[in-house]
Amino acid sequence: xxxxxxxxxxxxxxxxxxxxxxxxxxxxxxxxxxxxxxxxxxxxxxxxxxxxxxxxxxxxxxxxxxxxxxxxxxxxxxxxxxxxxxxxxxxxxxxxxxxxxxxxxxxxxxxxxxxxxxxxxxxxxxxxxxxxxxxxxxxxxxxxxxxxxxxxxxxxxxxxxxxxxxxxxxx
Length: 171
Hints:
Layout (H helix, E strand, L loop, with lengths): L6 H25 L8 E5 L5 E5 L11 E3 L12 E6 L3 E6 L7 E6 L9 E6 L2 E4 L3 E5 L4 E6 L11 E6 L7
Antiparallel strand pairs: 1-2, 2-3, 4-5, 5-6, 6-7, 8-9, 9-10, 10-11
């Protein structure tokens, strides 16, 4: 079973493991998200409720999910979301409620929900937060993007991009 195992192969394997360990501990855990805000994972459930959990909650560590209220709807209650995406300094989500369906909302970090959400002009079925812009797919599968920075967040200056997709994921 180990007849082809050489010292050279063992050393290469050790170096690869060390590099992976170094990258994880010195890049991913320190620089993956903005240093201004804690590392978090965000999501929505089947009932369109919004949740966030501080990291790390991987490799067997249990996530401590905390519900976050959505934007305040016309009825005075927090709205649910069908889709949510976080960036280094803000969160974007798509409203699920019948009267608000498809409306886009933004919440600056640290987002605790409710009145912190503000509506962004436009409607989408899916949103994804990239480094310098927010990307989305509309109900007709058209693709849109909006410039976004901490100093100048996306407020609805959407530009259509060629093509058509059913989903999108920006980095």
